[in-house]
Amino acid sequence: MELSSLIACHECDLLQRRVPLAGGAVACCRCCHAVLYRDSPNGIDRTLAYTLGALFLFLIANLYPIVGLEVQGNRQVATLYGTVHALWNDGREEVASLVAFTTMVSPALEIILLAYLLIPLRFNRIAEGTIPVLRFLQTVKPWSMTEVFLLGVLVSLVKLEHLAHVETGIGLWAFAGLIPLLIAAAGAFSPDEIWNKVSRTS
Amino acid sequence: MNVGDITAGQMGFYACHVCNLLAKSEPGEHDAVCRRCGSPLHLRKPDSVARTWAFLIAAYILFVPANVMPIMHTSSLFGAQADTIMSGVIYLWMSGSWHLALVVFIASILVPSAKLLALTFLVVSVQRRSTWEPMQRTKLYRVVEFVGRWSMLDIFVVAILVALVHLQSLATIEAGFGAVAFGGVVVLTMLAAMEFDPRLIWDPKRVQHG
To answer: The pTM is what?
Structure first.
């Protein structure tokens, strides 16, 4: 039996036959129901569209203030970089690095590398270094925490509301739009499809 | 060979953990790599139990300062104040935002402690080669993996407050050591969950049935 016609579940290791999927179906493990692989109709086009949208909103989210605060004529605004900078200056370099890594570096890498893989694929070409990039994407994914950050902004807005006049910035709205796009991109992305393309060409 | 009753491990097949491609293992072979993506191949994640324990124990140690030490120092014209995670929750509750108090309580107190206990339970059960309810334990593992990131909530709240409340003479907020420890707990438990191999939950049962 050909090994490439089989798949082992990554959660319970059960060996199963691969079946062709169509119409956005999902193949689940017979034993533990983990998702093995999925069919994503026009997966590359859709993922690329969401990713490019996310790239645009990510830039806005980083360039514009997220929240502002006004006390007795004193006005203070915070951008994403500003929060990292303030923590670093207070001598909390560990926390500053963690925030920078989870809200700026990881999402940026995720978006840019996806676009790097998908734009050539859109034209039926395989980007240089597709294999290490795919592997790296898998590693960086859990550390990208945009949605948790947005909830953090909302909690701090409520905390400050009692003390001062707070205002929301363009960055906050960009973040709010970024999250559904990132989720949609992850949902449309089928790494299995790209792996199959890689093995066919090599 | 009966596909559907047997595991890749029992057949001596490596399943690449990056690209899912299967490969036959040769007896006595070391340092096998995936022929498609070049990742190192293992039947199970190497030293999964020991590595999970290492991250877990480190997380337990940091869990104490994370909860006891202040995550935030506030100084204003009206005096100075230090806030721990719990006092932040109580403040939200007292000021009438009980729904947000609940969100922060779940994300910052309930989830990290439940996650530590759940991972401990999973590693111990795997070490004792338990055959009890593998499906339920797999579900528990999935929940642990899914919710882990939400514990970063309090770190982000502190970060934004520090950046905003820098009104020189009026008030300042600084991050306390509790925030460093708490961030450490979140990262370490995420690493522990990543090192844990859920296939170990199923192995003892499969051996029993042959």
So the answer is: 0.90
- DSSP letter at B7 equals B
What ipTM describes this predicted complex?
0.90
Q: Do B153 and A148 touch (CB under 8 A)?
A: yes
Size of interface A-B (CB pairs under 8 A): 205
Domain boundaries, chain B: 1-43, 46-209
Rg of chain A over all Cα atoms, to the nearest angstrom: 21
Chain A contact probe: residue of B16, B19, B140 with most A CBs at under 10 A: B19
The sign of the CA dihedral B8, B12, B13, B18 is positive
Fold of B46-209: Butyryl-CoA Dehydrogenase, subunit A; domain 3 (1.20.140)
Question: What pLDDT is attached to residue B62?
Answer: 96
Mean pLDDT of A68-83: 85
Fill in the amino acid letter for A45. Answer: D
One-letter amino acid of A11: E
DSSP for residue B168: T
Mutate to test the interface with B, among A74, A94, A148, A155 (most CBs of B within 10 A): A155
Q: How far apart are CA A92 and CA B176, in angstroms?
A: 8
Rounded to a whole number of angstroms, the distance from the CA of A83 to the nearest CA of chain B is 5
Please name the residues between 57 and 76 in chain B that touch chain A, using a CB distance below 8 Å.
none
Domain spans, chain A: 1-39, 43-201
Query: Coil, strand or helix: which one is B196?
Result: coil
Going by C-alpha positions, the residue among B113, B95, B111 that lies closest to residue B103 is: B111
